[in-house]
Amino acid sequence: MANQSKFATVEQDSPSRPPILTAGDVTPAVMRSFEMACFGYFEHKDITEDKQVRKILAGMQDTRIQDWISVDRDHFLGLSFANFMTEFHAGYLPEDWEAITHIELLAMTQGDATFWDFAIHVQAKNSLLRDTDSHLPEDKLRHRIESGMSQKLALRCRLDKTTAIKDFKQWLNESKRVDDLVRAERADFEALTKTTRDSYRRNNTFAELSRRANTTSASAPATSAFSASRISLPKLTQTERTLLFDNEGCLKCCRVFVNHQSTACTNGFPDASTYKPLTQDLVDLFKKRAKKGVASVMTANNDTNASTQPIAVVMGTSANPVAYMPANASNVVEGDSLDSDSSVVSPSPIAHITQQNLSPTLKASVDDIAPLTVPHLFWQCSTSGPVNCPPVTISALIDHGAHVVLISDDLATSLDLKRRQLHKQLPVEMAIPGSGAKHVVQLTEWVKLSLYDVSNLWSSKTVRAVIAPSLCAPVILGLPFLSHNNIVIDHAARTAIDKTTGFDLLNPPPVPTPKARKPRLKEFFLQLKEDRALMLAELKLVCHEHYLINRRHFEDVRPPEPVAAMRQRIEQLTAIEQLNRLSDVVKTKYSDVFEAIPHLNELPSDVYCRIKLKDATKTITSRSYATPRKYKEAWSTLI
Q1: Are residues 52 and 105 in the same domain?
Q2: 412/431 Cα distance (integer angstroms)
């Protein structure tokens, strides 16, 4: 097919054939490619300098170049190849090609390409300016490559002290190693993110809501008039999204200060005809109208016989004040043989519970009495760390009695999570204050938190975690996490199972072993070659051991006997003489067969058959045969 581009190209079937410059405009890159192809052809065919120009003139197919050559053909044939290329440059390259190429060289950046490809492109572009004033020497070329590399790679090279290397090629190789390392870390992080996202989508197929109504083709004609008059909701702007995220809003109903998210919203989309964009003034107005939540604790009955339970922590929000307290039956036990006036210390680091107003003596056997303490439910999970950092594994405390999800201040800082302000501070009061004075801590910030199993078999939905200082565990997973992810806890079996997928957080299944990859044919032959070498080495070792063991048990060889050897030789000579005599008898008997071959001129002229020989001057044409690509490496190894 003819070249459809307006620019010329260089074609060459093999190094043994002269290169062809197709018709079209000649660029500096094409000129350089044609020159390098000519050099390769000259070296392969070992062409002398006085014949080099003559050999490549026929390969220039552009009519303009052919006319230019035909005007002064004898002059060009007398030039050397270097002088011919100089006149070729002057005749068919723009006058300012050097300045344009220099500007393109200075504007090159790495972008999404690898560092090695970018460095090769810069060096190739610089090679076009060879033997010109704009050609960059090695030190300036290094500065050009450093200024064009990506910011992440430049920062990593400075941290790894790569810039201190003086040798240019060594610096290129070291920078390539750093770039490969950065790309490998990025690929691992993206693979982990994709796996987590795919797992979340498989477990929550209908979690993402659509902003459009579902219609069918059958009802389309009947509702065409309504669809034409229906006003579509405008897309949320970045400002509106920020206001909704920072003020506990819902992306579906576009309301602020609500206790649900878009996945569980039952209000529906707002009316497009009366919809007003969300602004900071509207948010401030809603804040003033919002009711203030009060955290309350019910007073105990004045009856001294009534039993009361110790309160560990009192937490309250604007919607649901709750008193967090441990179950008395599983933490404090009183019996006939267990009465004590001393304090009972729980192994949990959350609260220190003191025995007060205990219930009456339990009338039960010792076997029916609950244990004094039960280990907490800790979930070994992982969460994403900062950018370009591996995931962080933590032990999260599962507490179905907590009405809020808490995260320690140190963990939120190490994960570099975005902190958001609560629209109202969350007070936390210790149940057992020190020195008789109440100690209230105001929690003011929250972050978004998403956890997943260390084996990447299950991932949670995103929840809001309130930042708490000096927390006993890195994360406390309360009721919002358990209800939002449909977690059912069985305290006796010590399980926490997701109702949707059946995954047990506390007892995860073993990670399936990946199926071994079938080796390629080339790898099989290489492994076979290595096994053969090992087999030969082992065989030599075993044979040498047998030799060392049995070398003292060899039989003695008798010395040679001269008389017997002479007799054997005489018998051989006698047999040869008899055969020669028999040969003479046969030749004499069949003399017509064994007579000498006559001269060519004495041969008969009658031809009974003719054997046509191949032309000895004819060139043998090679032919290639198709073969599957997967056997290409194996054939190259075998042949």
Answers
A1: no
A2: 26
User: In this structure, is residue 304 part of a structural domain?
Assistant: no
Given a contact cutoff of 8 angstroms between Cβ atoms, the answer to whether 485 and 461 are in contact is: yes
- Cα angle: 305, vertex 311, 315; to 5 degrees: 140
> pLDDT (tens digit, 9 = 90+) per residue, 132-182?
788 888 888 888 888 888 888 888 888 888 888 888 888 888 888 888 888
**Average pLDDT value over all residues in the chain:** 77
How many domains is the chain built from? Answer: 4
In angstroms, the CA 331 to CA 374 distance is 8
**Which pLDDT value is given to residue 476?**
92
pTM, full prediction: 0.31
384 plus 483 within the same structural domain: yes
In tens, the pLDDT along 586-607 reads 999 988 888 888 888 887 777 6
Q: Long-range CB contacts (< 8 A, 24+ apart) of 420-424? A: 420/245, 420/246, 420/445, 420/446, 420/447, 421/246, 421/445, 422/446, 422/466, 423/247, 423/248, 423/257, 423/287, 423/290, 424/290, 424/292, 424/293, 424/318
Which one-letter DSSP state was computed for residue 508? P
User: What residue numbers bound the domain in which 386 lies?
Assistant: 377-498
Indicate whether 70 and 145 sit together in one domain. no
CB 335 within 8 A of CB 369: yes
If asked whether residues 107 and 88 sit together in one domain, one would say: no
**Does an H or E element contain 467, and which?**
strand 463-468
Asked if residue 438 is part of any domain, the answer here is yes
Say if residues 253 and 267 touch (Cβ distance below 8 Å).
yes
Residue numbers in the chain where pLDDT is lower than 50: 1-4, 206-228, 291-366
